[in-house]
């Protein structure tokens, strides 16, 4: 099934224009039930999508601003790989102060999800010290020596507590800010991992210092290299990971 599945949200549900982001999905702005919305069509499993939908509902109940799943007419939160979500107003963070607000919200997410289960099919960075694959990551597909460099960076996180991480909060396009709130969007790469991966932000907004910042920066670069492997961005990120 493809975008024809959108009809499950009503006869008046229509696509408007494609949106940037969603590297593993086709993302569009929509008009659904008379309001603006966002649709994401991909190949994730039902278990994967149910995990994300449940997380959004949980964070919303906790008072955070996140895109909420809009159910189909028969009450499903997704159908045939398609998820329809509320549109979040706002713009990206631009100043150091605004990025500090983002860091505060990320820490709230981390605090609230210490007991949240792992996303189905995913593995954390420290689990990949002993595993080869996990959803979008295949360390065996990387060039000789690359996996060893990534694992050396992740080994410095071993033994630390884990929680849900957003997965890509340093991208300003994944933040929608207003004067009143900070909304985190595009949870396509969220999973359970060490929170440091979320805290390498512009202006060092999370306030990491010295070795703590180096550990987080190396682990984050290694993660993005592995999860995006095959494109120019991944090659650039791998170049930031020190050789073993």
TrEMBL record:
Superkingdom to which the source organism belongs: Bacteria
This chain's source organism reads Devosia ginsengisoli
Name of protein: Phosphotransferase
Which InterPro entries does the UniProt record give? Kinase-like_dom_sf
Single Gene Ontology MF annotation: transferase activity
**Keywords on this record?**
Transferase
- Lineage, top ranks: Bacteria, Pseudomonadati, Pseudomonadota, Alphaproteobacteria, Hyphomicrobiales
């Amino acid at each position: 099934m493809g975008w024809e599945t959108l009809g499950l949200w009503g006869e008046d549900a229509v696509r408007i224009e494609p949106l940037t982001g969603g590297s593993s999905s086709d993302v569009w702005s929509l008009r659904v039930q008379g309001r603006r919305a966002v649709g994401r069509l991909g190949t994730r499993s039902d278990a994967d999508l149910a995990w994300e939908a449940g997380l959004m509902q949980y964070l919303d109940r906790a008072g955070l601003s996140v895109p909420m799943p809009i159910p189909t007419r028969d009450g499903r939160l997704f159908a045939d790989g398609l998820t329809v979500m509320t549109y979040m107003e706002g713009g990206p963070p631009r100043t150091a102060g605004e990025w500090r607000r983002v860091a505060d919200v990320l820490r709230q997410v981390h605090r609230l999800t210490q007991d949240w289960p792992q996303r189905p099919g995913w593995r954390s960075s420290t689990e990949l010290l002993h595993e080869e694959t996990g959803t979008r990551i295949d360390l065996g597909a990387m060039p000789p020596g690359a996996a060893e460099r990534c694992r050396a960076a992740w080994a410095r996180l071993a033994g630390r507590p884990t929680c849900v991480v957003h997965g890509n909060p340093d991208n300003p396009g994944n933040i929608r800010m207003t004067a009143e709130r900070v909304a985190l969007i595009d949870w396509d790469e969220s999973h359970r991992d060490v929170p440091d991966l979320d805290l390498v932000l512009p202006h060092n907004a999370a306030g990491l210092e010295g070795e703590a910042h180096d550990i987080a920066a190396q682990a984050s670069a290694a993660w993005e290299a592995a999860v995006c492997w095959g494109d120019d961005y991944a090659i650039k990120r791998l170049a930031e990971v020190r050789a073993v």
